[in-house]
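Sample log: Prenyltransferase.
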Amino acid sequence: MLEQRLFAYHFLNGAADPVEAALDAYRNEDGGYGHALEPDLRGPVSRTPHTGHALRVLDAVGRCGGQRVERVCRYLTSVSTADGALPAIHPSHSGYPVAPFAPVVEGPLPASNTLGREDAHGSLLTTGPVVGLLHRNEVWHAWLFRATDFCWQAVESLEKPHPYEVRAAVAFLDSAPDRPRAEAAADRLGRLVREQRLAVLEPDRLDTYPVPPGYAPGERHFPHDFAKSPQSLARAWFTDEEMARSLDFLAAEQQDDGGWPLRRHQWAPVPALEARPIATIEALRTLRAHARFTG
């Protein structure tokens, strides 16, 4: 239902109120969100990835503010770790099904954990996008101060990032308040992306781009995965020709049923089914942002 309302909002001139009403079904009394809002994390309890997803929805419909977001920030404060950041998955949430590749923070994560190279204190994957969203919407809350400092330290210390770390970093940098610092950090990150071949620049030569360890077969990233709009700092990492090839590839991925496939691990039928509408709306919004269609 939520994705139906979101699709109507983005592409059928739908209103924001039905989106908010559908999102409320996932909200818990602690101010966080749960109930498998992120399909790979099952169970009713609030989790930081669910709550980040909810903030993205609110941001998309222009409702990321007010008392609702104040409650979210109180929840974020309550689950933050010693350094003021968010864990990938809060350790108290065992007992419910979780995708086997999702990092659960029970203790220090080994550096070899390629889908969650966070330590016991915090996760750039979770914290970066949330902090970026709140800054973009001019939210002021005490939680943001230390969380922002964490993101700067995490982003500026990346040397051999995996693609999801880069995406989280871009989500932070695109809205970080210190614009010269953000631009400098993005320039450095873009050089790493190109040097380490983290983005497929020639989709007709996919086999020449390695899949990172721990990823699903074919789980590669493309320029459009990092630069979801022309306004993103990541857009400067790629030439017009590289971006055009990337968007051509994205458009060609549309399947016969009208939706887009999942390029990541699929660990169970129901989460995969629930994730496809999310992937489809994201693909359509990316194509529209880059003027591949209007409406």
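Observation: The longest helix spans residues 269-289.
Observation: Residues 1-92+121-142 form one domain.
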